[in-house]
Specification:
The structure is a single chain. This protein is of the alpha+beta class and 160 residues long. The protein has one domain: HIT family, subunit A (2-Layer Sandwich), CATH 3.30.428.
Length: 160
């Protein structure tokens, strides 16, 4: 039997229970954007790389306000969320040349939200064949680029 190691996954499942409070709120309040993978800060929302990405360039648009549903978010925040989602799409297409994008939200734990208490929009670049046997059978993702490199490339795109 072959074994594939995915140590980042263990950090994810054990860290999720260990951290008190909301991870998005903590990152929003911090001034260390590079360490926290915050790519861009708007008036009502910020753009952040997913620490445990499904693909290279997997980012999220997150309102500063801690709300668990779209109905609770202000009109200004939801409008800016969509504008930043559009900007993220444009930057991902320019930097990574994906053939498609997955854009969406999981509202509530039963809908698949990993952080159900704070809404966020996922924006993922996709390429033909990026879901192969490693993901579908081995439940392991192979990312061709480290997060620091992804951060530098997308941070530059958001600020140019």
């Amino acid at each position: 039997m072959d074994h594939l190691w995915s140590p980042w996954r263990f950090r994810y499942v054990t860290k999720a229970e260990a951290e008190p409070g909301c991870v998005f709120c903590a990152k929003a309040l911090s001034n260390d954007d590079q360490t926290n993978l915050v790519l861009y800060r708007g008036a009502h929302c910020f753009v952040i790389l997913n620490l445990y990405p499904y693909t290279t360039g997997h980012l999220m648009v997150v309102p500063y306000t801690h709300v668990s549903t779209m109905e609770e978010a202000s009109e200004e925040a939801t409008t800016e969320m969509m504008l930043l989602t559009r900007a993220a799409s444009r930057h991902l297409r320019a930097v990574y040349k994906p053939k498609g994008l997955n854009i969406g939200m999981n509202i509530g734990e039963c809908a698949g939200a990993g952080i159900a208490e704070h809404i966020h929009m996922h924006v993922l670049p996709r390429w033909p064949g990026d879901v192969n046997f490693m993901t579908s059978i081995g439940e392991t993702r192979v990312l061709p680029e480290d997060l620091d490199t992804t951060y530098q490339r997308l941070h530059q795109a958001f600020h140019s």
